[in-house]
């Protein structure tokens, strides 16, 4: 924007390099250049930069997460309300819980609890698989080897093993033979929506929930 001088006599704005007002002929030699008007558009505040030393400590498992994460990378717990802190403020005797390998699957039909220790992958189905869980015979919508629960870099995942009726997570059918991430509270349906009474529907929980009611092969 060009700099201007406002004539004190007639109020006309003249270019700053003009020394005689074009409106009234007033001498503009001693007149100061106009100050620029404030911008019509308010400045957009920039988000503060987050340094590598800033973290969010998960209240559920005590895992230290980068401050820009809103879900714990260890257990999936929400971090939206967790304040950002600096690594420098953490006491020397602070002990972070190790990444958990223990999860539970809670049946939404009868509350039966399947405890999973995912130090090794666990297969769920109607076949007698070593290290897996044997589903009851009346659940014939579940395949012999239906799906596999495992950990990938600390993330809980489920993989459909080319089951006949498929695996559904939170209402969404997942592709076969591809690991699909789960969070605490995810609902997993093994057997398909056409036969809900013949399917196994479970909710994912952290650690050991309640009494043992599992049928492990």
Task: Describe the structure using short key phrases.
217 residues, mainly beta, six-stranded antiparallel β-sheet, five-stranded mixed β-sheet, 16 strands, 0% helix, elongated
Topology:
Elements: E1 4-6, E2 13-15, E3 54-57, E4 64-66, E5 85-86, E6 102-107, E7 113-117, E8 122-125, E9 133-134, E10 147-152, E11 155-160, E12 167-169, E13 172-173, E14 180-181, E15 187-190, E16 200-206
Parallel strand pairs: 8-9
Antiparallel strand pairs: 1-2, 3-4, 3-5, 6-7, 6-16, 8-10, 10-11, 11-14, 12-13, 12-15, 15-16
Strand order of the largest sheet: 7-6-16-15-12-13
Q: How would a crystallographer describe the biggest sheet?
A: 6 strands, antiparallel
Task: Indicate the mean pLDDT.
Answer: 79
- Summarize the helix and strand pattern as letters: EEEEEEEEEEEEEEEE
Q: Give the number of DSSP strands.
A: 16
Q: Number of helix segments? A: 0
What is the first-to-last residue Cα distance?
80 Å
Note the beta-strand portion. Answer: 25-35%
Low-pLDDT stretches: 210-217
Which class do the helix and strand fractions yield? mainly beta
Rg from C-alpha positions?
32 Å
């Amino acid at each position: 924007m060009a700099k201007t001088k406002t004539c004190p006599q007639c109020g006309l704005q003249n270019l700053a390099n003009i020394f005689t007002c074009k409106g009234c002929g007033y001498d503009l030699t001693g007149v100061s250049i106009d100050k620029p008007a404030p911008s019509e558009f308010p400045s957009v505040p920039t988000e503060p930069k987050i340094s590598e030393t800033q973290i969010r400590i998960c209240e559920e498992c005590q895992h230290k997460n980068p401050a820009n994460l809103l879900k714990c990378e260890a257990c999936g717990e929400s971090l939206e309300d967790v304040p950002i802190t600096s690594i420098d403020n953490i006491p020397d005797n602070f002990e972070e819980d190790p990444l958990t390998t223990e999860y539970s699957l809670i049946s939404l039909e009868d509350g039966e609890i399947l405890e999973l220790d995912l130090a090794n992958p666990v297969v769920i189905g109607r076949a007698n698989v070593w290290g897996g869980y044997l589903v009851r015979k009346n659940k014939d919508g579940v395949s012999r080897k239906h799906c596999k629960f495992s950990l990938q870099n600390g993330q809980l995942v489920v993989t459909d093993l080319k089951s006949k009726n498929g695996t559904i997570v939170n209402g969404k059918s997942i592709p076969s033979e591809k690991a699909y991430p789960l969070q605490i509270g995810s609902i997993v349906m093994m057997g398909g929506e056409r036969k809900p009474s013949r399917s196994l529907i479970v909710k994912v929980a952290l650690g050991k929930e309640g009494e043992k009611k599992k049928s492990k092969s």
